[in-house]
Write a structure and sequence with these properties.
heterodimer; A: mainly alpha; B: 35 strands; 39% strand
């Protein structure tokens, strides 16, 4: 299984990363290679992302119906679930459909992380281990060992300056905010608000723990995600709309 | 609910990331130095040990009174979420070198230390200056990681450090004689000294010649299109060095072009052995090649194939070449014919010669016995003439 993973996913990605580093300017080779590879990966996964966005949008548009069901059946959770499933089925929406594209992207994250770590070869053992994963190519040989310096970052070490953590957390917040619809249900609204803060905070913390090559990938990935959402959904979405608790844009705010 | 699932998934994925791909901490692969019937080595637990093979074969408890000692080197550790100061064992890649009866070792954490056996046997506070002990740099200061071996010539110790600097230190006092910045990252190689020059190979594809007097760059240097993976080995006026494009270069000092190049199936990481005009080069492709030192032409009909990468530098004993593959298999190869035999594991022929561990450290020969330090912190003595593995020596 590990051999298959290495052969099919890790080695092509690692060698691609190194080949890219081999043709980019020496001073910023590896940082730029990560950025270029991230763009390539994001472009390749665009169909998945579009599907995810479409699915999320459909789910949001169904919120008024869901809330009506919640009101109608009160505390009968089983009935609510049954009716919800009916509504989803009628609309042709899979409630966990928006998860699959994300799940598919995780192996890419892991492969990219492994590639970055292997290519950086921060210890002699890592450099020795790198030898067994390389294709025989002059271009790749010229890229080794890669320079871990990029802007103020040492890509093989966590960034302790907080700058990258703030950038990763900030862009993640913006991306999430663009797609998180305010809810009329106070409980759901509270959960959404918490999550809106939790995820960027978590990734900000991960940024300070992982070698900065990986957070650099997250940052570029977030920026591409923001651009995609801006152009696909037409504008800043819920980032610019008032955070009034309407379950979706079709439902007017309920006055008390 | 959806968000909860999402967070759980993110956590699971990071657990998977941590479990499957977290870069393991450096372990070190210090080789063994033989001097005056004693063996000196740095172990993976950060201890420098002086081992008396005689006492080990008698089964005496370590350290015995036969000149044996052990010294634990620790370094301050400040983790991301750690509270307060703590210390961890140092990582040792460089093989200790004996200078005027004292043992000098460089550590990955950026220190060079001179240890006096008399002070270490008595377990005196380190550094015991009256016994000739010192550290460089002093106090809490550090230099770049020391990965390559130290080289002692006369009363000077030469050190390459990861910050791209070559240091010359006074062996008596530890004072810096000079430092020379080469502006390269990861200077992990061992320098080699001949006459008035010190030669250093770099990962950016240079061989530099520095003056032993003041570290200034001498007029000659060699530049290849790719970086050099191995340390240089000097044979007469020819430097042998492995590169990242799977070649072994032979470069005559003063020349701009290589004398010859030999292409292997992977990097030549280990130092070659040169004997009677033949270069014996072990490669990460698992093969051992015999090459004519003048022309680079192959001498054996077929290279000797171990089937596993060879990172440990082999050693020649009489007419035999002893090679340890990373998998733990050890071979004794006839240097004339290239025919070799695997050393059997006393616990069973099907197991590798050294099982359950890997071999990365350079081999060391002493009185017909080759000592192999494996990554499990054990020493494995190989009787070359008898083609057998002796009882292992645990360093724990």
């Amino acid at each position: 299984m590990i051999n298959l993973w290495n052969l099919v996913i890790l080695r092509p990605m690692l060698n691609g990363l190194l080949a890219l580093a081999g043709i980019l300017p020496e001073e910023v080779e590896f940082g730029l290679a990560i950025i270029v590879l991230t763009i390539v990966v994001r472009v390749a996964s665009t169909p998945l992302v579009l599907r995810q966005l479409k699915s999320t949008k459909a789910m949001q548009e169904m919120q008024p119906k869901i809330q009506e069901l919640q009101k109608k059946y009160g505390k009968n959770k089983q009935k609510i679930q049954q009716e919800m499933m009916k509504v989803y089925k009628e609309a042709g929406v899979n409630p966990i459909g928006c998860m699959w594209p994300m799940l598919v992207q995780f192996p890419i994250w892991i492969a990219l992380y492994q590639s970055i770590m292997k290519a950086l070869a921060t210890t002699p053992e890592n450099l020795l281990g790198l030898a067994e994963h390389l294709y025989s190519s002059e271009r790749i040989a010229q890229a080794i060992p890669v320079s871990s310096h990029f802007l103020w970052l040492d890509l093989g070490q966590p960034d302790r300056t907080l700058i990258l953590a703030i950038l990763v957390g900030g862009t993640m917040w913006v991306q999430q905010k663009m797609t998180t619809a305010p809810s009329a249900d106070p409980r759901q609204q509270s959960t959404s608000s918490t999550m809106l803060l939790m995820m960027p905070l978590m990734f900000g913390m991960f940024t300070m723990m992982f070698p900065s090559g990986l957070p650099l990938f997250w940052l570029v990935s977030n920026l591409i995600g923001i651009s995609t959402q801006y152009f696909v959904t037409g504008g800043w979405g819920y980032l610019k709309r008032p955070a009034a608790p309407s379950s979706a844009h079709t439902v007017p705010r309920k006055r008390k | 609910m959806r968000n909860r699932v999402l967070v759980s998934l993110v956590f699971l994925c990071f657990l998977a990331l941590g479990a499957t791909s977290c870069s393991p901490p450096p372990q070190g692969y210090s080789g063994v130095m033989s001097y005056d019937d004693m063996l000196y080595l740095g172990a993976t637990d950060g201890k420098v040990r002086a081992v008396n093979p005689g006492a080990r074969s008698e089964g005496l408890p370590f350290p015995s009174s036969d000149g044996e000692w052990s010294f634990a080197i620790t370094v301050p550790s400040k983790g991301f979420l750690s509270c307060g100061d703590s210390s961890t064992p140092a990582t040792i890649y460089s093989t200790p070198v004996v200078v005027d009866g004292r043992v000098c070792v460089g550590i990955y954490d950026g220190k060079v230390m001179m240890l006096a056996p008399s002070a270490r046997i008595e377990e005196l506070h380190f550094p015991h200056r009256k016994s000739g002990e010192w550290t460089y740099p002093d106090g809490d200061d550090v230099i770049g990681a020391v990965v390559g071996n130290l080289v002692a010539v006369g009363d000077t110790v030469y050190v390459c450090s990861s910050d791209g600097v070559v240091y010359a230190l006074d062996a008596s006092s530890g004072d810096q004689e000079w430092r020379s910045e080469l502006s390269v990252e990861k200077l992990w190689t061992t320098p080699v000294v001949q006459g008035e020059a010190i030669y250093v190979s770099t990962f950016d594809g240079h061989i530099y010649a520095l003056s032993v007097d003041d570290g200034s760059l001498l007029p000659w240097s060699f530049e290849a299109e790719v970086g050099f993976a191995s340390s240089p080995l000097l044979y007469g006026d020819t430097i042998l060095v492995g590169s990242f494009d799977d070649n072994l270069y032979a470069v005559r000092i003063g020349d701009e072009k290589p004398l010859w190049r030999f292409q292997g199936g992977n990097w030549f990481w280990a130092l070659p052995v040169v004997s009677d005009g033949v270069v014996y080069a072990a490669c990460l492709d698992g093969k051992v090649y015999a090459l004519d030192a003048e022309s680079g032409r192959v001498k054996w009909d077929e290279p000797f194939d171990t089937g596993s990468p060879i990172a440990a530098s082999p050693v020649a004993v009489d007419d035999s070449l002893v090679v340890a593959a990373q998998s733990g298999d050890v071979y004794v190869i006839d240097m004339q014919t290239g025919v070799g035999a695997r050393i059997e594991n006393p616990e069973g022929d099907e197991k590798p010669s050294i099982d359950g561990t890997t071999v990365l450290a350079s081999l060391c020969g002493q009185d017909g016995i080759v000592y192999i330090r494996a990554q499990n912190n054990c020493l494995y003595p190989i009787d070359v003439a008898g083609r057998e593995r002796k009882a292992r020596i645990s360093l724990d």
